[in-house]
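Exercise 7.
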Amino acid sequence: MKTLASQGPRAWLRSPAALALLALTLYLVAGFLAPALAHGVAEGDKGYIQETSGFLFWPFIYLGAKHMVTGYDHLLFLFGVIFFLYRMKDIGTYVTLFAIGHSSTLLLGVLTGVSVSSYLVDAIIGFSVVYKALDNLGAFQRWFGFQPSTKGATLVFGLFHGFGLATKLQDFKLSPDGLLGNLVAFNIGVEIGQLLALGAILILMGFWRRTNGFWRHAYAANVTLMTLGFILTGYQLVGFFVM
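Solution. The predicted structure, written as tokens, is:
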């Protein structure tokens, strides 16, 4: 039986998967150079959020969907989560766990005003990408002799992903008029965006899995995913200690 531990990175740079991950890497670097980092909100959207008052269902649906589709940390984590999931039932279970965690801490964080440094939260989110890549590589089984609960980890990291955005939203002067309804609409938008992004990832993964090179390149793909997670984590830690 093939395992990732037995697969090497040979021919990786010649594979379609390498091109896809290269594009994702460039997307990640572009995100670092942009004003909005990880859970940051674009200046135009920030101004809109601060100036609005009352319940605005569709605008906040749009903002939530946009956040998820352009949130490279979310996309990296989801990519790792579904990497070896084939059945839609399993995919639905893990995505639901992530959504529950993401939605609950986003609502609770904003409504209760509980917050910590966004840099620390985003560093943990970056680590979630590292964790999932290591999990896919079977590292915990080899290092510690046991397999941590993947469902539990998905839920816990979902909590941090939602809390990350909550810390950003708390920096804005959100109007209390219609706040709960707007947050619910934002959450619905996030889930819509998640489904759109997940659908695109699954289509690409479906084509890749049908090729003979999937198992040959799966090891290198997860090493690349882990590297991107370390970049995210390091970048946020530097921001915490320097900014």
